[in-house]
Amino acid sequence: IDRIFRPLLKIPKKSLLKPQALGHPRDDKKQWPNSFKKRKPYPLKLSLLIGQNSLRVLDGTKTRLYSSSSRISMSLRAGIVGLPNVGKSTLFNAVVENGKAQAANFPFCTIEPNVGIVAVPDPRLHVLSELSKSQRAVPASIEFVDIAGLVKGASQGEGLGNKFLSHIREVDSILQVVRCFEDNDIVHVNGKVDPKSDIDVINLELVFSDLDQIEKRLEKLKKGKAKDSQSKQKEEAEKSALERIRQALMDGKPARSVALTDFEKDAVKHLCLLTMKPIIYVANVTESDLAEPGNNPHVTEVMNLASELQSGIVTISAQVESELTELPSEERTEYLKSLGVNESGLGNLIRETYSLLGLRTYFTSGEKESKAWTILAGMTAPQAAGVIHSDFEKGFIRAETVSYDDFVATGSLAAAREKGLLRSEGKDYIVQEGDVMLFRFNI
After folding, report:
1. Annotation-wise, does 89 bind a ligand?
2. Is 87 annotated to bind ligand?
3. Domains, in order of start, for the chain
4. SUPFAM superfamilies from the entry (predicted)?
5. What percent of the chain has pLDDT over 90?
6. Mind giving me the DSSP string for 272-327?
7. Model confidence over 379-436: pLDDT tens digits?
8. Whole-number pLDDT of residue 244
9. Contact at 8 Å (CB) between 88 and 149?
10. Was 93 annotated as part of a binding site?
11. Strand 279-284, strand 436-441: pairing
12. Of the candidates 166, 171, 164, which has an alpha carbon nearest to the alpha carbon of residue 201?
């Protein structure tokens, strides 16, 4: 690592072993190596995650995943959490190709988080690839992290305690698996299947952890003295936001329920509050409940709780997902139809995640490749271009755009241009779901 990345990033040798040298916002500058203090500030805030043949680089505004085969834009991290023995690792192994998370009938069989990258299923991409006669089709991706089971008292160190909580801070969204099936052969950590109790345990531990962090931060803000008016303004905004969040947590509400301005959100972002992250409740049921999940009283209870907590919900059978991985792709659809469903749980889960996070997909398509790109809803054409490469955004001239339906109807960009369906959009254009785009830029 040292030999490869130190010359590339031009960072002093000692700095590579010290995370604080990379400019983490929570680190004390006094701890930085002297050699690093003398250098000009390095613009990137870097977090290196070596594994799965990939290097994950975070620059504060965009999250990108660099892999050995290709660069995938806006890679998302979703943490799979829950009490022990609710089906987390079984679900992880099912949705992640070649997943190797240990699944066993005892608590804490998962210690370190397992990480796997999953292609986002999107049939539109294959249609575009065939029409453009592309050499390959490159889907968008989502990164799943299987995190160890949480127990009551984790915020005080019970079970895996703060180690578990630190893993949650690193993800973009939380998928909380809730057991909604009865099985005497699989031990429940609390002795009975009770979704509300399970959800309350986890949410309470997240609240306790956030409260502890907020108290420490507010104490530090009282002692600190801002050096300039801009820093003082930001500290005041952070203090005001944290006091309101603290009150909401004391009332049993998550931090995400507090209305904050964009400036306040930016001020508290560095704390990575657990209850600020969006949550999707994953109701794990038996295959007999997949077609009519509403008939399962446990699922109904989870639906009501998800609505109260302003969260999403997806019904999945981890066991069925596991069985699907053992079938040839052409037989999977027939198997799902025999169970009364049309789509796998993975497809439902990813779609709900995209919806909850406010994400959209646009495409680029040509003879070399057809590719799906993930962006935030409301992004302009230059911002969407920047997801591919920063130079595209800097030198943006215009975007030649056609809707997916019009592209399919005409068969190509050239045909769409001839029929007047290919539009020339400028810097203010808001990219729409399913747009097929060709960017013109100049550096």
Report:
1. yes
2. yes
3. 77-356 (3.40.50.300), 378-441 (3.10.20.30)
4. P-loop containing nucleoside triphosphate hydrolases, TGS-like
5. 36
6. --GGGS-EEEEEE--GGGSS-GGGSHHHHHHHHHHHHTT-EEEEE-HHHHHHHTTS
7. 999 999 999 999 999 999 999 999 999 999 999 989 999 999 999 999 999 999 999 9
8. 95
9. yes
10. no
11. unpaired
12. 164
